[in-house]
Amino acid sequence: MARTITDFQTARPDEQVRQIVMDYMKNEGFSYTTVKGEPVWKKGVGALTAPQFMKVECQNGHVLMDACINYGLFSWLY
Q: Which of 6, 18, 30, 43 lies at a CB distance of 3.0 to 4.6 Å from 65, suitable for a disulfide?
């Protein structure tokens, strides 16, 4: 499983960041779902595809993005 974690600050309000993320992810074909009890954005379905996952947390101008591609036939998110 390939994974990337990015952590950064922004001057934008949290709600505006959430709206930007939501608009972008929907335009890219991701859907908002829950996987193993955690809310994530997911794109791709099936055993022969490489599902992509993105988890975005935003609080007080602090943004944490956690992205992974589940490329193994028998591997699972987290």
A: 6
Give the span between the Cα atoms of 41 and 47, in whole angstroms. 18
Contact present, 53 and 77 (Cβ < 8 Å): yes
Nearest-angstrom CA–CA distance, 11 and 51: 32
pTM score of the predicted model: 0.78
In eight-state DSSP terms, residue 23 is H
On the question of pLDDT at 73 being above 60, the answer is no
* In contact, 56 and 67? CB cutoff 8 Å: no
Give me the residue label for tokens 């595809």: 49
